[in-house]
Design brief:
The chain is α+β, with helices and mostly antiparallel strands and about 475 residues long. About 35% of the residues lie in helices and about 15% in strands. Helix 8 links the parallel strand 9 (about 260-265) and strand 10 (about 295).
């Protein structure tokens, strides 16, 4: 594998061993961005001069025997939704095009303190609200496996840049699969942390300070080792909490696949997935069985899936519609007033959750606690759940209004946002999930799966991803890069 596609862990070690300088590595990635990104448009915000200056400073420090941290001299990118001092944070919204961040986000500060520097910002969908990454500020990002298809969203630029070998490491964010979808679509690794273990300060639009419910910040990379390394750097308390508590995530104790108890969840009538996806879950189960793991295709948490999905939609809309203008809320209230009280369709739940009052949120949050306890009980018997992330491999670009979009799943039309089920099943209960690549489907596009575990077992899902991909193969560069 060429240098551009090496893991961040390997690249940082090569810099410390002086096999390559930070400046040489930074220049190499910049050259690749200039060569490939005109077609991909993964990194529309570029800060090459600052990156070169930081690389030179890192090399000068190393020459004196000083190591800044585990990411010393590593050039990387980060999702445009993170504040990076002096660069825009628009979330794809035209109104913020010319607004520059006055200071770094907490995650960026931690990454810089660990020795990394930033070459640019990766593209996102409008308000981070899509499985695709396009907006009027920066345009459309394409998947390096097929530029006619989505790289995912909302961390689509991040995953595309990693897959194409344009950066050493990246960080995204996730509330509806926004780390996990792009990792799956682009064939890289992505980790959605347990809620609250990575500070989100500075991952926000102007004026937003409070940590949002269920939304998380987390890394994307070309190896599971890199996910663990990045979590070592960015995990910790929010600044306001730092005086009172420290984070101590448990480290995995299991050393081989034979030690794991794994429940597989290949499909669900609530949100069917393509055969290529469900078959891949089964293939992983077969590999695990041969490796000596305890595997079950019937073990499930004691939860009501409809209730679980409803709670997730209430939590999701509680966050995503919090800033809506009153007149828009009033329009949705008119829709809600006309609903049959017995209508429990996704559309009805979405409408109601859009206009929910605080007492509604508290009721659903209380139900969420019941779900969390059920998952805790389940993970006292099982270590990992393997399940799909979304219904299909990367789909063609589709910029129609959301209500007109569909996906073709096993030759059947499915509502565009129906695939939120698989993200929400995990997100709504704060669980950690690592998406790992499993190789291409018959259409030549990557397939990634979720490895899920109990709350705070982030390093367990990451380590499991490392072990399983030793058996089935990990990241593979797309052709032509």
């Amino acid at each position: 594998m060429t240098l551009a596609f090496e893991s961040a862990t390997t690249l940082a070690q090569k810099i410390r061993d002086k096999e390559i300088s930070s400046r040489e590595l930074t220049d190499m990635y910049i050259q690749r961005i200039e060569k490939h990104d005109e077609v991909l448009n993964a990194i529309p915000v570029r800060d090459f001069d600052s990156a070169r200056q930081a690389a030179d400073a890192a090399d000068a420090k190393l020459a004196k025997g000083d190591v800044l941290g585990p990411l010393h001299g590593l050039p990387m990118t980060i999702k445009e939704s993170y504040n990076v001092k002096g660069l825009p944070t628009t979330w794809g919204l035209e109104v913020f095009r010319d607004v520059l961040s006055p200071q770094d986000s907490e995650a960026v500060r931690k990454l810089k303190s660990a020795g990394a520097h930033f070459m640019g910002l990766t593209n996102v969908p409008v308000n981070l609200g899509d499985f695709q990454s396009y907006n009027d500020v920066y345009g459309q990002t394409n998947n390096p496996w097929d530029i006619g298809r989505t790289p995912g969203g909302s961390s689509g630029g991040s995953a595309a840049a990693l897959a194409a070998g344009l950066t050493g490491l990246d960080c995204g964010s996730d509330i509806g699969g926004s780390i996990r979808n792009p990792a799956h679509y682009c064939g890289v690794y992505g980790h959605k942390p347990t809620w609250g273990v990575v500070p989100s300060k500075g991952h926000a639009l102007p004026g937003m300070l409070a940590t949002p419910d269920i939304a998380v910040c987390g890394p994307l990379a070309r190896s599971a080792e890199d996910l663990a390394l990045a979590m070592d750097v960015v995990a910790g308390p929010e600044p306001l909490n730092a005086a009172g508590w420290t984070l101590s995530l448990p480290r995995p104790e299991k050393t081989s696949l034979s030690d794991y108890r794994v429940a597989i969840w290949p499909n669900e009538d609530r949100a069917p997935v393509d055969t290529a996806i469900s078959d891949r879950v089964q293939h992983v189960a077969d590999v695990l069985s041969k490796a000596g793991a305890k595997v079950s295709d019937t073990a499930r948490p004691d939860i009501d899936l409809e209730e679980s999905h409803r709670v997730y939609l209430y939590m999701l809309n509680g966050v995503t519609t919090a800033g809506w203008p009153r007149e828009e809320i009033a329009k949705r209230q008119e829709i809600v007033d006309g609903l049959d009280p017995n209508d429990m369709s996704d559309g009805a739940i979405l409408a109601r959750s859009t206009v929910q009052e605080h007492r509604d949120w508290l009721r659903e949050s209380n139900t969420r606690e019941k779900l969390r306890y059920a998952w805790r009980d389940f993970f006292s018997q099982w270590d990992i759940v393997i399940c799909p992330q979304v219904a299909t491999t990367a789909f063609p670009h589709d910029h129609r209004p959301f209500g007109e979009r569909t996906l073709t799943v096993n030759n059947q039309e499915q509502r565009y946002f129906q695939q939120l089920f698989w993200s929400g099943l995990i997100t709504g209960s704060y669980l950690p999930s690592t998406v790992f690549p499993t190789g291409p489907a018959s259409d030549g596009l990557p397939v990634g799966l979720q490895a899920v575990s109990a709350e705070y077992n982030d390093y367990t899902t990451i380590e499991f991803a490392r072990l399983i991909t030793q058996e089935i193969g990990g990241f593979t560069p797309p052709p032509g890069y």
